[in-house]
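Batch manifest, entry 17 of 40.
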Amino acid sequence: MHLPWYIPAIAAAVVWGLHYPLIEHALRRVSLPTVVLLTALPMALVALAFPARLAADWRAVVALPAGERWLIGMIALTSLAGTVLLYMAVRGRNATLASLIEISYPAFVAV
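Output type: structure tokens
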């Protein structure tokens, strides 16, 4: 089943709208590293379900020129940095204000 692109986009907005207050709640009770780990844990579990696909992708990435490998590797660094910075903002103020500022990211995508 193929959904029009805007359906998962709207669904993602709803999920993130639920996620941010949950993060705010968690950060009042446990540390930032714990919340980051809880955020990453489901991704690690999903990765365990696709070992052959991940191995093939790893081989494909290794075969790329160094510059392209670096760009793909930056996904991990930017994801971690963005997550930590966002969670720091939520902890410092609240989920609503942090998300209102963070939502300006399309301007940086365009740049």
